[in-house]
Design goal:
The structure holds 2 protein chains of 2 kinds. By secondary structure, chain A is mostly beta strands. Chain A contains no helices and 12 strands. In chain A, the strands form 3 sheets. In chain A, strands 2, 5, 6, 10, 11 and 12 form a 6-stranded mixed β-sheet that branches. The model of chain B has no long low-confidence stretch (mean pLDDT 92). By secondary structure, chain B is mainly β. The chains are: A mainly beta, B mainly beta.
Chain lengths: 115, 112
């Protein structure tokens, strides 16, 4: 079974600073990787996904993520954080193309942004 | 306007009471999911349905039940057997295999 860890429970950055949120996964084959964002009391919104091909994927809101197979990582980055980016971020991994119910979320990283 | 709707936004349950959370989608998606979200624990899968009239238990199905009589609807019942139901419940749907899941806005369940 696959698993996901997000080592940072809470991160605080200043507005305009760069951001990197870490995600490590465990899965024996090529994973399907996702990053979601959740504002308080809301559902989850997909930021970006990796299925295959170019290991650097671009998403919405200026986010990008890089898949590194050798490190089993899929870290999320943004060059300049905006106050509206304050939210909870979840990394997720699907086991295979037709992942069905084999879809696991990490525990989340809460991002706070200082003015 | 396509999407997933969940109702109600807030739900209060009394001791010994069963309550039902609604999830409706007009995306024509085959697969639908129910997740429970607790602080610091991410999302945990309660039930999953890949097609109409079929569903499977997820990691924490005890105390919950579902039905899938229509493609667009996947209601979740929190039974009195669920001793700690206070949580945020999220419904999601997925189209073709390999696609991502799309989430509803959630229902917060509180116990009186």
């Amino acid at each position: 079974a696959q698993s996901v860890t997000q080592p940072d429970i809470h991160i605080t950055v200043s507005e305009g600073a760069s951001l990197e949120l870490r995600c490590n996964y465990s899965y024996g084959a090529t994973p399907y990787l996702f990053w979601y964002v959740q504002s308080p009391g809301q559902g989850l919104q997909l930021l970006l996904k990796y299925f295959s091909g170019d290991t650097l994927v671009q998403g919405i809101k200026g986010f990008e993520a890089e898949f590194k197979r050798s490190q089993s990582s899929f870290n999320l980055r943004k060059p300049s954080v905006h106050w509206s980016d304050a939210a909870e971020y979840f990394c997720a991994v699907g086991a295979g193309w037709n992942y069905g119910q084999n879809f696991v979320f990490g525990p989340g990283t809460r991002l706070s942004v200082l003015p | 306007d396509g999407g997933i709707t969940q109702s109600p936004k807030y739900l209060f349950r009394k001791e010994g009471q069963n309550v039902t959370l609604s999830c409706e989608q007009n995306l024509n998606h085959d697969a639908m999911y129910w997740y429970r979200q607790d602080p610091g624990q991410g999302l945990r899968l309660i039930y999953y349905s890949q097609i109409v009239n079929d569903f499977q238990k997820g990691d924490i199905a005890e105390g919950y039940s579902v039905s899938r009589e229509k493609k667009e609807s996947f209601p979740l019942t929190v039974t009195s057997a669920q001793k700690n139901p206070t949580a945020f419940y999220l419904c999601a749907s997925r189209g073709n295999p390999g696609e991502t899941q799309y989430f509803g806005p959630g229902t917060r369940l509180l116990v009186l």
